[in-house]
Amino acid sequence: MPRTVFTLGVAGALAVGGALFTAPTADAASSCPDKHVCMWEDSGYTGSRYVKQKAANGTYDIDGFNGDNEISSLKNRTSCTLTLYSADDPKASAFKWTVAPGKSISNLKNLKDSKGNHANDGVQSYKLSGC
Asked: 56's torsion region: left (phi>0), alpha (psi -120 to 50) or beta?
């Protein structure tokens, strides 16, 4: 009898554990709350979401090894102008790209500066202004 209880206990724990580690649906992973800027590792708002920033004027660094030079899609769900930079320090940035308020870009290869340089995998920091 105790063995039966133990087996059911393990099965119950596995069922609960499985529910805790369920992968988010595609809609949840690609979502971005209103009044936020979100940036993803891959095009189409997929992969890891490295940035989820609430609208506030300021300059922000994309921290750490993950995220720096890995952004491939974004949603600007704010009233702010979003400026992307190719360096952690905007003053040292060789390239910069501007994204209008409310604009989403599913592939940053389509966002180019005045010289034709695309932003895909080239963003290290960003600025929100006019919020």
From this structure: beta
Mean pLDDT over each residue of the chain, to the nearest integer: 83
Q: Rounded to an integer, what distance in angstroms lies between the CA atom of residue 29 and that of residue 45? A: 8
Residue-wise pLDDT tens digits, 15-68:
444 433 334 444 555 799 999 999 999 999 999 999 999 999 999 999 766 677
In DSSP terms, which residues pair with 36 in a beta bridge? 54
CB 78 within 8 A of CB 131: yes
Q: d(Cα 131, Cα 129) in Å, to the nearest integer?
A: 5
Distance separating alpha carbons of residues 95 and 117, to the nearest angstrom: 8
pTM: 0.76
Helix (H) / strand (E) containing 2: helix 2-20
Q: Give Cα 28 to chain centroid, integer Å.
A: 12
State pLDDT tens for residues 61-100. Answer: 997 666 778 999 999 999 999 999 999 999 999 999 999 9
In the structure encoding, which two tokens stand for residue 103, read together? 């604009």
**Closest Cα partner for 128 from 68, 61, 64?**
61
